Amino acid sequence: MVRGKTEMKRIENATSRQVTFSKRRNGLLKKAFELSVLCDAEVALIIFSPRGKLYEFSNFSMNKTIDRYQNRTKDLMSSNNTAVEDLQLEKELDSFTITKKLEHLEVSKRKLLGGGLDSCSIDELQQLERQLERSLTKIRSRKYQILKEEIMKLKEEEKLLLEENAALQVKVGRESSKKGETKQRSESKEQDIMDVETELFIGLPERRTTTNGFL
């Protein structure tokens, strides 16, 4: 018979709760004993029943195991406190370093803009001058690069416009040629019509006479 999965919540029935406690307590004590024997581990187990009754197991002295646990907990807490203090100190140092860097950058910015130069020495002024020259060189280089790209772009656009213009001229020439041919054919037809009309007889028909001299 397959056992169903036990739902992890408080058992409301007191009798069932006591039976389950007894079974699980004995199983837990057995597992603690097996762990201490099989793995040579120092195990201390303390259980209080719902009525306050004590059950315990220890393969060494319970008091020594508890003392060892308390000492270990203190060491861990001390180590954690030290780690927290070190982390806090590191954050403060980082914050102080960042603040100093920002102040230095702000001073350098003011000097590069021409402010706060009264307290500068010759060496500092020469250094600022070199920095400005390097900045100007980079700015000019970037400006020329942008202008070069714009010129190349305009040349490409000019090339496309010339090609479109040439195509339009060819198209217009073809249309003009077609119109000329159409006009020429029309004039030729008109001339043919005029030629046909001039060949028609204009005037009275010829009179024919009989033997008597009359028609």
Automatic annotation (TrEMBL):
Keywords assigned: Coiled coil, DNA-binding, Nucleus, Transcription, Transcription regulation
GO CC entries: nucleus
Any one GO BP annotation for this protein: positive regulation of transcription by RNA polymerase II
Compartments where located: Nucleus
GO molecular function (one): DNA-binding transcription factor activity
Coiled-coil annotated spans: 122-171
Domain MADS-box: 1-61
Xref: CDD domains: MADS_MEF2_like
SMART domains per the UniProt record, alphabetical: MADS
Predominant subcellular localization, coarse grouping: nucleus
Domain K-box: 88-178
Region (Disordered): 172-191
Pfam families per record: K-box, SRF-TF
Matches recorded under PANTHER family: SERUM RESPONSE FACTOR HOMOLOG (PTHR48019)
Designated name of the protein: Agamous-like MADS-box protein AGL19 isoform X1
Organism: Cucurbita maxima (Pumpkin)
